[in-house]
Fold:
Amino acid sequence: MLDKGLSGGGRYWAWLGALAALIVAGALAYQRQLTLGLGITGLSRDVTWGLYIAQFTFLVGVAASAVVVVLPYYLHDYRVFGKITILGECLAVSAVAMCLLFVFVDMGQPARALNVLLYPTPNSIMFWDMLVLAGYLALNAVIARATLSAEHRGVPPPRWLRPVIVLSIPWAVSIHTVTAFLYSGLPGRHLWLTALLAPRFLASAFASGPALLILLAMLLRRLTGFDVGREALQKLGLIVAYTMTVNVFFVLVELFTVFYSQAPEAMHHFEFLFLGLEGQAGLVPWMWASVVLAMMSLGLLLTPRCRQDMRLLAAACAMVFASLWMDKGLGLIVGGFVPSPLGEVTGYAPTLPEVAIALAIWAVGSLLATVLFKVVAAVRGEPSGPDPHSRWARAPVEP
Amino acid sequence: MSMDRRAFLGAAGLSALAMTGTQSLEALAGAGRPETTPEGRRAPRWGMVIDLRKCLEDRGCTDCIAACERAHNVPRLESRAHEVKWIWREPYERAFAQRGSGYGDEALRGKRVPVLCNHCDNPPCVRVCPVKATWKRGDGIVMMDWHRCIGCRYCMAACPYGARSFNWLDPRPRVKEVNPDFPTRTRGVVEKCNFCEERLAQGRGPACVEACRERALTFGDLRDPGSEVRGLLRSRHAMRRKPELGTEPSVYYLA
Structure:
């Protein structure tokens, strides 16, 4: 079945070749990082986590967001999501793979990675994060593979799959909650030391992930003719409208608490992000771009006439994704380190090798997603067998 | 074949869970926190008192820092971003970050304060380490295993005192004069002050304390009411850094 990912036209191979080139460039940069140390990145004594861990955090959200299609489809038997659900699961697999790679390249001693399993430490949130992420990767890989291979062979999916799918729903929420706990449980870091962090993470994840899924589904239709259906995209667009609204609400709630209470520790972080501190203002344009894009996307999403226009929906989704990437994939992690607990304002900008490594990991994820989507499109494009989940279907299925 | 893979994954998951289970039980049983030494004597609780009036940093004295760096092969790095520090000087305002004192601490403004790992009673760094590469001994010293550390730097994010350093580059070529009695480190691991546990094991005091001509640093057993440190703490008003965080530092400052 997976061999279907190995057949394609010239454009398909050119795209895979471009990704492979990025991966090779990143591997060379990583080789340099391995020999010289993490000193070749822009990280420092004060800003100890940067681009890698921020990408990791953002992508855990993308991975978790598969639940937005999985839950309606499997628990509520919402048939409209029949085709997009498998795409969501494949996207989750690619996103978790990227997460694990980003954590790996951030390690000072990658050869000792297995120490996390050799010396399991339940009091460390990072230990739990590794467990839930590995579990989530396994769950989604098993689900996507079993669903597709059943369909490929024209038989209903095995009975044991149902509980696995149900388990994956709370598991998705858990991966992003635990990831938020990595940060919100640290006593000296006032940007993160808020109980709202986990809810905020989930809201932004359930906006950015589905926004990406909508864009990818549109692209897939244009390239292969595989169509998840207009209704599915519209419904998912409505979900993004709600989750993005909730996310912006959470951010405003946070800003109120911080600035009305005037507690200096937390205020300084927001001042660094939005105004700059002591001449360090590298993140300021990004943060304001994120705000503007968020406002524009909400304007489009909350106006039914705009949302129902597929092209405007695509534009809104691109804005949501870009806005949340800037907020979470850049600002939230770096901003937590500046000012340092001693009040030191240290700038951070990723270096060239650091960007090359990050791009390579994004390329690995894109490669995985491309091949998986290709397999889905090929299998689903076959003369259709029975509905993949007919065993559980209560209502008759569309032809 | 795919069944084999599933079976393998299942077994791997179960064994991970089983390992976690034993570890939690040990933690619940309170292992690793002995209040007494193996010989039955009451274990000490090491702490330090720093007298800011006696410290001669304003005359450029760095004896404590130099002694520590010699004893522990602390590398000297050109770039501030990559610095490795065990004990160093920090402006009073940064070390104490107490903006609420108004004019109350004018005498201390601008003074540079020696800072080091606080060897907290409730250390956030130990709580977050995913591999137990850092842990608290019965005598209160927060230790670091450079051979187990995976270099994730979670402990650095957790420490509210900036007391931990990461080896961003290879430290060995950057050690001025190698002390063969103490290990050097490799790149990619975290390090910090160890309260000179290697010297304590030989019955000697910490290198920084020994090096201070003015006797501004005093080291001793905080649990013993008759100790010199406890005597000092009774005699004058003492401060600890960021007491509101509940970390319970064992380094005290006499203003």
